[in-house]
Structure formats: structure tokens, C-alpha cells
Design goal:
6 helices, alpha+beta, 3-stranded antiparallel β-sheet, two-stranded antiparallel ribbon
């Protein structure tokens, strides 16, 4: 088997070319040859794998930007990937950043785990699955989400001066689909609404 075939066997993409996140810690035994050397040769953008699939990497913020996990997110034909539907993108782009209030925002997946199959399917996406974030806010969220996935501990909004850490759930999570709900970064506006309710 080639490395491409081995990874596909391990990742098990569905009929739409979407696989689960595969941790590099799984590259053992018969999959040991998949261990990334310099540049992830078998998965880089000119590879056979990347010519067929949209390949996504989740990089560590604590290990010098090393790759923590990898997944396939649709076929490389533009029909099915994590790309946000055009009408949703246009609608979000007209809004201001929900954190900084600035214009010309990036379109952010509220669920930083990106583990909801429905939201990953373009035809099933809803406007409320996304929010406008400035580049600075989106970069910050991305960093906090990576740390959350790595540690299993959600971001604590008290670090931003808020009186509560989360409006739903506890600090620890187990990577379930709804693990993000209640976190400040999942939906800052919803978080603030809950603060108002607490005051009443």
C-alpha cells in the first residue's frame, strides 16, 4: 500500500470525501510510515492525496507549529468542502465584528471544534452557524480553540474580565458536538445576552 492508501484506510472518508480528524499519535504499527518528516511530504499540496481531497492540518501552538492532526474535508472539485456557502459569506461580510465592532470581518465558524457534520455540508449550512469576526479576533479565537482541543479545557471568559466563565457547561469537555456552546468565543453576543439575564 502507498502512504496515500494507508492514510485513506485509517481516516475512512465518507462518500463526500470527508473524514474524521486523525491524530498524528495514530501513526503507529502499520501506519508508522505516515509519521510526518520535514514538510509532510505525502500530504503536501502537490501530493496525490491533496490533488484528490481538501487536506486540512491542525497545527500545535505549543510545539513550534508542528502538525497535531490531519483530516480530509471533501473532494478537490469545489463541490464539497469546508468552504462556506457564498450567500452566507455575503451576508456575514456586511456585518461588523461581534467582538471589536469593526467592518470587513472574516466569516467564522462558531463551532471551533468543526465537528458538526451538518455545518460541514454546504447545502445544510445556516446563517446562524457563523459570525463576523475581525482578523485579530478570529486569529485569537483560532489560537484559543486549538488550546481547548488540545487540553480538553474550555476558554475561561473571566480572563477577559467577565463575571462568569461560561453560560453553559463546565471547564472540561469531551469533544462532543455541543462542547463549544456556552463558551465566550462560540458566540460573544449570546454570551453577553446571558450576562444581561443574570443581572435581571
Amino acid at each position: 500500500m502507498t502512504k496515500t492508501e494507508l492514510f485513506i484506510q485509517l481516516a475512512k472518508p465518507d462518500e463526500n470525501g470527508i473524514s474524521r480528524w486523525v491524530s498524528v499519535s495514530e501513526f503507529v504499527g502499520e501506519y508508522a510510515c505516515l509519521t510526518f518528516g520535514n514538510g509532510a511530504s505525502w500530504a503536501r499540496k502537490e501530493s496525490i492525496l491533496a490533488k484528490k481531497y481538501v487536506v486540512e492540518f491542525d497545527k500545535s501552538i505549543t510545539r513550534g507549529n508542528g502538525i497535531d492532526r490531519i483530516r480530509l474535508n471533501g473532494f478537490r472539485n469545489g463541490n464539497y468542502s469546508q468552504h462556506i456557502r457564498a450567500d452566507i459569506k455575503r451576508a456575514i461580510k456586511k456585518l461588523n465584528c461581534v467582538v471589536l465592532g469593526t467592518s470587513n470581518p472574516e466569516v467564522d465558524h462558531k463551532n471551533g471544534m468543526k465537528n458538526e457534520d451538518r455545518v460541514m455540508r454546504n447545502e445544510d449550512q445556516r446563517l446562524e452557524d457563523f459570525q463576523p469576526l475581525s482578523k485579530a479576533a478570529n486569529d485569537a479565537k483560532r489560537q484559543f480553540c486549538k488550546e481547548c482541543r488540545r487540553t480538553g479545557i474550555r476558554y475561561d471568559a473571566k480572563l477577559l474580565g467577565y463575571p462568569i466563565s461560561y453560560y453553559q457547561g463546565e471547564a472540561h469537555h469531551n469533544h462532543e458536538e455541543n462542547a463549544c456552546i456556552g463558551c465566550y468565543w462560540y458566540d460573544p453576543l449570546e454570551f453577553k445576552r446571558h450576562l444581561q439575564e443574570k443581572k435581571q
